[in-house]
Amino acid sequence: MSRALPKYNKRRVAFIGGAAAVALSGTVIAGFALAGETPASGGTNARTLAGPGTISCPDVTGELPAIPASAQAEVDRNLGDLDTQIQEANKRLVDTVGQGGPNFVQNAILGPLEDKRVAALNRIETAIGRAAEKPEGLEAFAACQLNADGGAGAGEAAGGEAGAGEEAGAGAEAGAEAGAEAGAGAEAGAGAEAGAGEDAGAGTGEAGNAGAGTISCPDVTGELPAIPASAQAEVDRNLGDLDTQIQEANKRLVDTVGQGGPNFVQNAILGPLEDKRVAALNRIETAIGRAAEKPEGLEAFAACQLNQ
Q1: Residue 126 burial (CB < 10 Å; 0-12/13-18/19+)?
Q2: What is the pTM of this model?
């Protein structure tokens, strides 16, 4: 009886330890499950409630000269476009909370917004310049900024998630100590998951090395009328800008392989490139129009495409 009791006690301790490990493991797993559900359902909402911020842009109306009656409708239309662009950018700011890397807002929202504003402001200058002295330098009012409301809230939410992860990690260590067999099972599971993660990472790397493609844009030089000598330098400068813009877009295409969602290239590269081209093509029209009949419709050559 004296020898049987220790065996019984050992079995009893092993059984209790194993049960405790299973229970604790269940608690940890449940904690991980709940933590996994939080970003999908509550995490995004928490960040949204904290506020993605708002975009503010300089008001250009007070900087305009007297507007000729013949230009009033076109100027008003473009001033309305400036307001619409800000509204669309603020909506996109809300719709994309949590997406992209640290420069996502600048690259996919503020940058494209500035390019669109440059094009609208150039159109305002051109409209006034048809009937009066053309204002210059309105592009200085194109850049906008993000007024972040609730960045601290987002940080606190992130901190809370990190804290939850630390508690879960502590629970996992406790579970391992409670039962050696349960700990071994957990390690085996973790090893399997780690292996799967490595395989997935390798696949992602191979996909990232598959090639970024190139961007091609229509050539506008053959569509230009005879260029007055007084406009030649400015036209050449803007044609050079069009080439530079394509080179920069192709470089960005390579540098950002694998980033963003399915619409990243359109939103962060092709869209901003088109807006920059519209502005340069408008400047070419204006330069020629100062000394000869102004060409119209060059914006039709602004859109570019990705060749995979």
Answers
A1: buried
A2: 0.44
